[in-house]
């Protein structure tokens, strides 16, 4: 038994069957950022005695007041008066001349028109290294980037804005100053105000990961819209229209034209899993919309004794589908000998733009490898994922240990296949359902049915070289569900 990793890509984008929307895509994109070293001054209201403050107010009202008059005002003895004057003079706020008291320039600057009290500040210089994204110029923390992440697409920067990026930092730093100090738990800074920004120095460039969930209404599945709530809250997103606009443009680029031979793509589902698809197939081919409507209406349907092939909707890395993939492998591998465990499993990538460019893909590959490794023994090599792709489709190759290239005519371009030889298989078609152009809606099945697995194995053997386990899983080895 293994558990799915508790990561953003798996857990927080799980499909709620009671909502009117469905998940048709999960992507991670890079948000370009840069760190800046900001030198600034903090001001804190200075602490002076109440008597000194009243003295400043008095001289501000009657500049040049005689010292004797001041002494009478406070009813001070000569010693007390000397202490008071020494304090004010040492601070540089009052000067003494011919027995009279005058405000210095610094003393006059303490007073503002809307406040009778002197604004006395202690000023200190600080330096802070802060990251800002290069689209909205909002603070962004630098996080760890994995080897796989460098293949993720990057949100574009407006060249006109990038040219004067550093000029935008002071305004953003002022606007977010309280948030920056609070985030870094600088309690002593929180009691002070920003006095000035003295220097901005750009340093290293970095990228942040922005997870995007593409959702569509069940009634209009080919019209996808981006959902960024797994990344940040609504209030944050509303104040960063540059980012939401760039993400919307990215999702719009995912739209594709439905190919003339689309029926052949879905026919492959019927050829590979005829028992599942026979209800949706007639002499004209697969009734795609009927299949879609029934699959989208299913709630938490899993495997059973009489149901070894389960229809699915949405990307394989979505939580509900990933659970089915893992469950199918567990049921066939749990009681199987080492000879039934394959040394490689295969993932055929569809040609769809940006397919697989999300962090959940290498995580799911890793989970499958780790589970199969527990069945092969310590001396055997760890089973590895192999990417099957066409020559012109690079895709997320860094999620895989090996790559096989096939002709672009070998299989329909929209077909995705995840085959764990002898144990399980998942097949999806990535096409708009009805409209001539729109977002692809992944639709297909997950199966641990032996006949379905063998059909997929033969299909891949016709177009590439794949390795099969030494022995096949027998019926008594399968961990069948107890429910009917």
Can you put this structure into words, describing what you see?
The protein is an alpha+beta fold. The strands form five sheets. The chain has a seven-stranded mixed beta sheet, with helices on both faces. The protein has a four-stranded antiparallel beta sheet with strand order 5-1-6-7. Strands 2-4-3 form a three-stranded antiparallel beta sheet. The chain has three domains: 29-41 and 123-254, no CATH class; 47-119, Arc Repressor Mutant, subunit A, CATH 1.10.10.10; 257-477, no CATH class. Strand 9 and strand 10 form a beta hairpin. Helix content is 32%, strand content 27%. The protein contains 17 helices and 18 strands.
Structure in a nutshell:
By secondary structure, the chain is an alpha+beta fold.
Low-confidence stretches: 1-15
Strand content: 25-35%
Largest sheet: 7 strands, mixed
Shape: elongated
- Category from helices, strands and their pairing: alpha+beta
Helicity level: 25-40%
Number of helices: 17
Total strand segments: 18
Strand order of the largest sheet: 11-18-16-15-12-13-14
Query: Termini separation (Å)?
Result: 22 Å
Q: Taking Cα atoms only, what radius of gyration do you get, to the nearest Å?
A: 34 Å
């Amino acid at each position: 038994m293994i558990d799915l990793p508790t990561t953003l890509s798996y857990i927080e984008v799980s499909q709620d069957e009671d909502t009117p929307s469905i998940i048709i895509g999960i992507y991670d994109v890079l948000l370009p950022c840069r760190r800046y070293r900001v030198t600034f001054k903090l001001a804190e209201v200075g602490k002076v005695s109440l008597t000194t403050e009243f003295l400043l107010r008095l001289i501000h009202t009657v500049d040049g007041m005689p010292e004797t008059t001041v002494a009478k005002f406070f009813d001070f003895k000569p010693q007390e008066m000397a202490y008071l004057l020494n304090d004010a003079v040492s601070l540089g706020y009052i000067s003494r001349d011919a027995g009279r008291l005058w405000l210095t320039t610094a003393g006059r600057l303490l007073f503002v028109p809307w406040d009778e009290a002197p604004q006395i500040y202690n000023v200190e210089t600080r330096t802070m290294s802060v990251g800002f994204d290069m689209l909205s110029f909002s603070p962004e923390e630098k996080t760890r980037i994995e080897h796989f992440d460098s293949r993720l697409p990057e949100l574009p920067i407006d060249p006109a804005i990038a040219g004067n990026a550093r000029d935008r930092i002071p305004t953003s730093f002022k606007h977010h100053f309280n948030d920056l100090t609070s985030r870094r738990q600088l309690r002593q800074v929180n009691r002070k105000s920003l006095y000035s920004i003295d220097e901005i120095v750009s340093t290293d460039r970095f990228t942040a990961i922005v997870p995007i969930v593409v959702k569509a209404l069940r009634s209009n599945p080919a019209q996808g819209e981006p959902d960024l709530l797994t990344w940040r809250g609504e209030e944050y997103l509303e104040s960063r229209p540059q980012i939401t606009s760039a993400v919307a443009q990215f999702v719009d680029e995912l739209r594709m034209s439905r190919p003339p031979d689309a029926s052949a793509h879905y026919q492959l589902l019927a050829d590979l899993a005829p028992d599942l698809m026979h209800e949706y197939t007639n002499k004209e081919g697969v009734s795609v919309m009927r299949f879609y409507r029934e699959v989208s209406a299913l709630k938490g349907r899993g495997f059973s004794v009489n149901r070894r092939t389960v229809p699915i909707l949405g990307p394989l890395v979505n939580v509900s589908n990933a659970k089915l993939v893992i469950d199918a492998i567990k049921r066939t591998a749990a009681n199987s000998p080492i000879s039934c465990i394959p040394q490689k499993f295969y993932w055929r990538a569809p040609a769809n733009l940006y397919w697989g460019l999300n962090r959940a893909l290498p995580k799911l590959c890793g989970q499958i490898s780790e589970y199969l490794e527990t069945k092969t023994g310590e001396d055997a090599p760890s089973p590895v994922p192999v990417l099957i792709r066409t020559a012109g489709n690079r895709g997320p190759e860094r999620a895989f240990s090996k790559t096989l290239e096939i002709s672009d005519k070998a299989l329909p371009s929209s077909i995705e296949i995840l085959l764990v030889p002898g144990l399980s298989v998942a097949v999806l078609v990535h096409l708009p359902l009805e409209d001539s152009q729109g977002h692809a809606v992944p639709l297909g099945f997950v199966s641990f049915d032996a006949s379905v697995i063998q059909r997929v194995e033969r299909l891949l053997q016709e177009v590439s070289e794949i390795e099969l386990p030494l022995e096949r899983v027998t019926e008594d080895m399968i961990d069948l569900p107890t429910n009917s």
